[in-house]
Amino acid sequence: MKKLFLIIPLVFLFGHLHAQVNILNAKTPQEIGQKTPQQKIADNSKPLPYPYTDDKDILWSIQVWERIDLDERFNLPLYYPTDSMFSTSDRKALFDVLLEGIKSGRITEVYADTYFKEKLKAEDIEERLSFVDTMDVGIEQYNYEGKVDEEYIRRMKITPAEIEEYRIRGLWYFDARYGELRYRLIGIAPVAYDLASVASGLEAELVELFWVFLPDAREVLHEYYAYNPRNNARPFNFDHLLNARYFVTTIYKTSNVYGDREIKEYIHEDALRQLLESQRIKEKIREYEEDQWNY
After folding, report:
1. N or C: which end of the chain has fewer CB within 10 A?
2. Cα maximum dimension of the chain
3. What dihedral angle (degrees, nearest 10) is formed by the CA atoms of 173, 175, 178, 184?
4. Res. 15: pLDDT tops 70
5. DSSP codes, 258-273
6. pTM of the predicted model, to two decimals?
7. Where are the beta strands (DSSP E) in the chain?
C-alpha cells in the first residue's frame, strides 16, 4: 500500500491532458481538446486493480461513513465545472460523470441506501432528480378552465450546482500480511436539498440521491479528469482522486453495536462536540497501526 501511495502522486504529475490536449498543434479551435490518433493509441490506461485480500489476513477493521463538504476549498475539484459550457469530453463534474455512466448502462450497481439493499434503475434515479409542481395560480386556472398553462407549472431538476456534498462509505482495515493499515472506498452518494421542500418553501433537508458501489464505477471514473490546482497541464482522474483520498472529510458514522448509529444520535445539537467526536474517531483509527508496533 505504501508503494501505491508513492505511485499515485506520480500519476498526478504525469497524467494525461484534458481540455489542453492538442492546444499547441490545433489548426482550428475545434481541434483543441481532440486527441490525435497517436494519442488515442497511447492512451490505453486502466484503473489500477485492487490487490486481493483474504479475510483471514484482516486483523482488525472498522467501517466509516464520511461527508465530503463541497464548500471546502480543497474539495472543489469534485464540484466543478457546474456549467456544461465549461465541460469537455473528458472533464466534467463528478455528479455528471456518475449520472452519465448510469444512463449509458456502464454503471449498474446503483442503490437507494448505503447498505446496497434496494437497487435502482435509471428511470428511478430520474424521478429522484426532478420535481414538478403546479403553482397556486395554476390550480385556480384548472378549477375554472380545466387546464393549466405551462407558465404555471414549476419544474425543478438537480444539476451539479445543486450538489452540496458527497457521502462515502469505506473500510479501514489492518492487513496482517503486510503489517499496515489500509483503506478501501466502497460507495459514494451525491447529496442535495430535497426539491419538494424547496418548492414548498419549507426548511429543506439534505437527502442522498443514490448510492453507487464504487468498484463498479471505476472504469468510468478513470476516463474523466478533475482540475489540478497545482498544475493545470497535469490533471488527475476521478478514480485516482477518490482512491488516494485527495479530499477533506468529516466522519458522521461508524459501524457499532448500536445499529451503526450516527454521531448526532448520541451527541445532540452540539456541532462542536460532534466535530470533536469525529476527530477522536480519526485519531483512534490512525493510532491503531502505531499501537501494533509498540511493545
Report:
1. C
2. 83
3. -40
4. no
5. TTS-BHHHHS-S-HHH
6. 0.81
7. 58-69, 110-111, 130-134, 153-157, 165-175, 180-193, 206-208, 211-213, 225-226, 236-237, 250-254
